Amino acid sequence: MQTIIELKHVVKTYHTAGVAQTVLHDINLTIIHGDFVAIVGASGNGKSTLLNLLTGIDQPSSGEVIINGLALQQLSQEKLSAWRCANIGIVFQFFQLLPALNLWQNIVLPMDFLGKLPKAQRKARALHLLEQVGLINEAERLPSQVSGGQQQRAAIARALANDPELIVADEPTGNLDETTAESVFQLFCHLRDQGKTLVLVTHNEAFANAALRKIEIHAGRIHSVAEPMAAG
């Protein structure tokens, strides 16, 4: 199986007011193409920091983060931004849609940044993605004019704008009610069925058990790696 993510002896230390705090210790992890990985653990144990390293938003203090054979720590910030836009779809807990743009315009933004798709085709792709997540009738609405669940669906559509093979999500259902969270989670399962690689941080035990692998982080270390029973 093709390896898409490889972390080798990754350490992350922050320095605040002269005090060093290590939040990740000697992380070694391999994720293959098409995997669906849930990362679990109590708050403050390094889960979001790990995602930031996978996406190149942050850099390791030592060790290597390799995505599809590319060592992220060797790229400049400018090249990292372009690489991230082309290769990773990121879904945040708080949606992070631009409030002054309607839903389809928010989805077009990553396409504009990358410039891979001809400009004349970008709105059509945005509308197609909104249709996939059940929001085609809300395309002209501002984020403030739709529900939290609809905003998260739009954020997922935005993450797919440039057709990345890797989707990374940080507590994407954390601010949603149970029913809405379930519908959003089903979208991630649909992406898994389409062959996308998914890395999802979640506190929802049922969602974690629906993944193909569950990785527990405790005190900045990988405590266990399991294949949940639900994965079958």
Question: Based on helices, strands and strand pairing, what is the structural class?
Answer: alpha/beta
Write the CATH architecture name. Answer: 3-Layer(aba) Sandwich
Low-confidence stretches: none
**Global outline:** globular
Percent helix range: 25-40%
| CATH superfamily caption | P-loop containing nucleotide triphosphate hydrolases
CATH topology: Rossmann fold
Quaternary organization: single chain
What does the radius of gyration come to? Answer: 18 Å
The share of residues in extended strands comes to 25-35%
**How far is the N terminus from the C terminus?**
19 Å
Any idea how many domains? 1
Main sheet: strand order: 6-7-8-3-9-10
Find the count of extended strands (DSSP E, 2+ residues).
10
Order of helices and strands: EEEHEEHEHHHEHEHEE
Mean model confidence by pLDDT: 90
CATH top-level class: Alpha Beta
The profile of the biggest β sheet is:
6 strands, mixed
What is the overall number of helices?
7
Question: How would you briefly describe this protein structure?
Answer:
This protein has helices spanning 47-54, 77-87, 103-114, 119-132, 148-159, 178-193, 205-209, and strands spanning 3-16, 19-32, 36-40, 62-67, 70-71, 88-91, 166-170, 197-201, 213-218, 221-226.
